[in-house]
């Protein structure tokens, strides 16, 4: 797999004002379809996968006041490229917990994994999780108010083999 830094692009950082994960998936899914990054069935596939395999991560174990994240992804068949899409949510929205699926948690960021290679999905997921716990300061990330600032922060923390 290429370095995780290669998966981020400035035009794939979004700010969204939504109330549910389904609404988020529909909005981001349409943007990705419009850009040709995913197949038309992507949105429904990610909604369905989230029902059975939740992607919310409780970050309270890392420290206090750290925003929770979600890492939505679906099968590689629905993706035309390898990218990580970053979404900062205006208001936290509920996601089911990846570790304890019956529990819900409020999420401030969603990091969508787009992956066309079956073998790399686990590596991307684990690299992101490592970034959340060791390399990035999610509290700092949540203070940025432009897509450019978020992209530059992530780029500064992921380049030079830091992940």
TrEMBL record:
| Superkingdom to which the source organism belongs | Bacteria
EC number assigned by the record: 2.7.1.191
**Residues in PTS EIIA type-2 domain copies:** 5-157
Q: Which UniProt keywords apply?
A: Transferase
Gene3D superfamilies assigned: Mannitol-specific EII, Chain A (3.40.930.10)
Tell me one Pfam family matched here. Answer: PTS_EIIA_2
Give the residues annotated as coiled coil. none
Entries under InterPro entries matching the protein: PTrfase/Anion_transptr, PTS_EIIA_type-2_dom, PTS_SugarTrans_NitroReg
Keyword rRNA-binding tagged: no
Q: Which GO terms describe its molecular function?
A: transferase activity
Is this entry keyworded Transferase?
A: yes
Q: Which PANTHER family match?
A: PHOSPHOTRANSFERASE SYSTEM MANNITOL_FRUCTOSE-SPECIFIC IIA DOMAIN CONTAINING PROTEIN, PTS SYSTEM FRUCTOSE-LIKE EIIA COMPONENT-RELATED
List the protein's name.
Answer: Protein-N(Pi)-phosphohistidine--sugar phosphotransferase
Organism for this UniProt entry: Bacillus sonorensis
Q: What is the lineage of its organism?
A: Bacteria, Bacillati, Bacillota, Bacilli, Bacillales
